[in-house]
Specification:
Blueprint: H1 2-27, H2 37-48
């Protein structure tokens, strides 16, 4: 049971993390304004990891 809860929490945190990065990418203009939002999110993820 603990593993299931841990899995759900992990997924929730990952989703929350991605959503936060998405919102940050929306609010803060990227260095290149022509970049669409998806590469922006990918760049954020890449830099974090």
């Amino acid at each position: 049971m603990k593993k299931i809860i841990f899995g759900v929490v992990t997924v929730f945190l990952v989703v929350l993390d991605q959503l936060f990065k998405f919102l940050v990418a929306q609010w803060l203009p990227m260095e290149n304004d022509t970049t669409t939002i998806i590469p922006g999110v990918l760049n954020f993820t890449h830099i974090e990891n």
